[in-house]
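Narrative progress, year one. The postdoctoral researcher (J.K.) led the effort to move from monomer predictions toward full complexes, under supervision of the PI. The following entry was the first complex the group processed end to end, covering 729 residues in total.
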Amino acid sequence: MIRVDSLSKTYKSVKVLDIERLEIPQGQSFGLVGNNGAGKTTLFRLLLDLIKADEGQVLSNEVAVDKDSQWKKYTGSFLDEGFLIDFLKPEEYFEFIADINGVTKEELKAAYEDFADFFGGEILNTSKYLRDFSKGNQKKIGIFGAIISQPEVLILDEPFANLDPSSQIRLKTLLKELHQKSKISMLISSHDLNHIAEVSERIVVLERGQVVKDLLTTENTIGELEDYFNPDAAVETEG
Amino acid sequence: MKRFTLLSHQWKAATRSAAASKSMGIKIYMGFVFFILFLELLGLGFYLGSNIAENSEQPIASLMRYGFYFFLAILMTRFMLQNLPTFMVSPYLSLPIKRSKLVNFILTKPLFNALNILPISFVLTLALGLRQHLDAPTFWVLFAIVIVGDLFVNYLSIYIKRVQIKHEYVFYVFLATVAGILLLNQFNIVDLESISSGVFMNVIGQPLWLLIGLALFALAYYLNFQLLYKHFSLEEFEKSTSNKKSSLENLNTFNRFGKIGTFILLELKMCVRNKRTRSMLFMAPLFLLYGVFFYNKPTYLEMNGFLIFIGVFISGGFMMSFGLYFFAWESGHFDLMLTANNTYKDYIKAKYFLMLSTSTIIFLLSTFYIFFGLKILIINTVCFLFNIGVNSLLLLHFATNNNQHMDLSKGSAFNYQGVSGRHFVLMIPLLIIPIFIYLPFSLMGQANLGLATIGILGVLGILFREKMLDLITQRFMNKRYQMSEGFRDK
């Protein structure tokens, strides 16, 4: 579904991303972890054609994303507040995205009902503009916005950050359900190893722009990741 | 002791701010530009002074006729250029410092504003030019008038500026008042010049009248004090404006136009719901009124080139001030626009139609200028055609060059964040090209043919717009990474 070919990106002579080959088959739930500055957001932005790769390319359905915008039809994404229109109310924002994607009002209504729990009564019918919501609620709005079009590929950057504990749990359930029901490819990054292990079939670890681990999730995965990220343990293995 | 601590904190805030770390080159360049402007101002003062001395029987009285305009100019300059004196109060609130002391501290800051030098030095050079007609007492009274008047104007502008943060309409009331007074003067209903001369000559005759000026200043200071004392920090003052009302919500007419309609609706909401764009919207009628100031002077009516300039400005001024930043306005959600499921052409076309429609509305309103003659209407019509046919496309083309993030929430009027002089330079060709097209025809005695050419170029632009929009879309695609990167960098 998505294939990355010898992709690299350099900022001010620092190579922030350098991936030889990475393939994400259709229907896979794919987790991305890595410390700050590891290149997670850069990778996602490259997948979404928001920045220009220095070398290599990203293929979605065998088509290069920077050459043809076919991928936009089946890709939903939410990376940061740059995806939110801060002077709209949530309903207007959702309607805007629905309009752009040809989603009807009825389908949107149905989606509201499916997400009623996730919204927790704090988002719809509040007549507030997006800019007046808390970070956590903005995140919920963005995540829902990415899902409205029922995409085949869903890209979310740190969806669990800023959410309250209940919302985090609801989001996990939601993502798992979504994945089981519609077999979409999900690309999610997170700093929370437990969350990511729970929602992903496969986990890739980035460090300084390179893929250093590529694991299929099993019950041992958490332990392995914790060992990897534990600063003290790292010294032992290296030494 | 405490005051010095506050002062030293202010010094640190100033020297360690992000603005202070601007590159040295830019600072030197800006310093140079301001120095030149300052010298020019001094030269102007001297020139005006000696000119009046030569040409007038009663130089002081003639000078005083313009006193009102002088203070109005200072008011507008201060309003545009001077920042509100602010101060991060929150860290000090929990300390044992009196609130009134902090307020007074904030309010002394305008006394040390660099702009204060301008009126004083201007008047000094003016006096130098007038030296033969000025005796010492008159000079000192004149000097005192400027200082007292400027103090009042200074605190008045700060007060208006601070009030309009919360009550935006105050700004428009202010603008309308100024425009109203000038219009009344224009149509000779009120004679500003003789009023001004009367007032200031009286002060020169009896300097005790200066006390009234001081009282006005005290009043302005008191108003500022009250306002700050009550609301204290700027942030607190701003926060209370929760935006519950929402306009354009049920506007479904645009759904008929498909994706383009969706984009236009979004654009309209953006205009109405953000402070910065909203103030721009309110400025639109000003462009329409532009003609009033010129059309009633017979000399201007003979100058076709000038009339073309005004014609372009009337129907295109709003479009230009807005269109040059078409993509930058959306810097807050530009990533969404790039990843949303739409073709870039629809997105750009929506902006094109927006220019087309606003320009058309303003043009239709401007047809009342036929009152000044059929020629005006004809010129304005060809300029309108040129605006929607050619200038709109040029604007979209130029707009792809602006990749600086724009903050729409902050400051309404005269906010130049994300705007640079370079951009204004881009507007010059838009205004001048039609004149250049017209000139050769006019020199050959074919003025009407010249006007027709401008109009025909506009019509051609409208006819071939699809092709042109394709080219602009291509350019947009080439520039999109640069733009999105710039917009992300706040």
